[in-house]
Amino acid sequence: MADEKILVTRPFMPPLEEFTRGLREIWDNQWLTNNGPVLQRYTRKLTRYFQNDNLSLFNNGTLALQIGLQGMNITGEVITTPFTFVATTHALYWNKIRPVFVDIEPDYYTLDPQKVEQAITPWTKAILAVHVFGYPCKYRALADIARRYNLALIYDAAHAFGVRVNGKPIGNLGDLSMFSFHATKLYHSLEGGMLLYKDQGLKQKFDYLRNLGFKSETRVDMPGTNARMNEIQALMGEQVLEYLDEIISRRKKLYELYRQELEQVPGIGFSPELPGDVQASYAYVPVRVDEKSFGMSRDDLYTRLKKYNVFTRRYFYPLICDFACYRHLSMTDPLTTARRVADQILTLPIYDKLEEEDVVRICEIIKHIQKNTDCT
Questions:
Q1: What is the pLDDT of residues 324-357, one digit of tens each?
Q2: In this structure, what is the dihedral angle of CA atoms 313, 314, 316, 317, given to the nearest 10 degrees?
Q3: Which of 232, 263, 282, 351 shows the smallest number of beta carbons within 10 Å?
């Protein structure tokens, strides 16, 4: 049994001496929030990275999505996925929008376009899709549906920083994309969030909404909230950005090692290789545990791994529609695939300081557990 816990993730930390130099700049400026110089510089770097000037930063991803929906005047019903983190649906709720849950496709666990189209009603105003585990949604099909039915197409890209499609950062798909910079993510700014959008006119509106509606010192134009990113968050985000390619390269090696070690294990399933136009970020290592083939359920494997100090995550489980606060919503879609996936998915540990020998050991433990399924 391992002496040290292997957690499902740990945040990347830039060298302490570099971060300390950045803190000295903030101390010298005596400017901690309200669009300080570090945040301004960080914003410029992100606009260059995404090749998009229509970018707004926030203190977390949840508020970013809430404000994005409000700024776009989304009302009525929004078709979305039940296989996501609760914040996706909460953002709809806080805007008094009714979520309409439809099923996911079985390969990459993103919204099934056919199910989306079947769920459209006169009250549907938008599609809110999620790039689950950083796997791009079926964006061409969703864009076609959104165009034909005149719907806004919004992406929760919380998992997808660093992913590229056709050589371009994924955030430029759809009408708006939200990214989370939470510390559990591959890319982070301690806490934080970002919106990328097509309509340049939204920028000023988002600025007002994240800053309590202030237009000037004595003028408030709308009832906004406090969602400003501060200087220390911006500093962390700026420094982590410098290491992004290195982080992704490291994770790619670990992901490929997991796949090499586990792909032939009965009952352990990986998603298919991504299409050639996608450059992955390897933010997560999701596997599906088939109870019949593996010899035990995903939950049993999850529990037994803890005995070896290996901490995985059932992500996402349960489905959003099964939480008490959303059970009242009526659904016509049986969510067959989503329910099966939610009962099978296990995300394995991956982070930049995880050693390859640790990955091999985790895989050997999984194989050992399978061979000893009758042992407790």
A1: 999 999 899 999 999 999 999 999 999 999 999 9
A2: -140
A3: 263
Written as six digits, the tokens of 218 are 């004595």
- The DSSP element (H or E) to which 194 belongs, if any, is strand 193-197
Separation between Cα atoms, residue 226 and residue 249, nearest integer Å: 36
Q: What is the CA radius of gyration of the chain?
A: 21
For residue 197, the surrounding DSSP H or E stretch is strand 193-197
> Cβ(194)–Cβ(160) under 8 Å?
no
Please report, for residues 76, 148, 259, 274, the alpha-carbon distance to residue 271 in angstroms, rounded to integers and kept in the order given.
34, 30, 10, 8
* 24-61 pLDDT tens trace: 999 999 999 999 999 999 999 999 999 999 999 999 99
- Please list the alpha-helical segments (H only) found in the chain: 16-29, 37-50, 61-71, 86-94, 113-118, 139-149, 202-210, 231-242, 244-262, 291-294, 298-307, 336-344, 356-371
Note whether 130 and 111 are within 8 A (CB): yes
Question: What is this structure's pTM?
Answer: 0.96
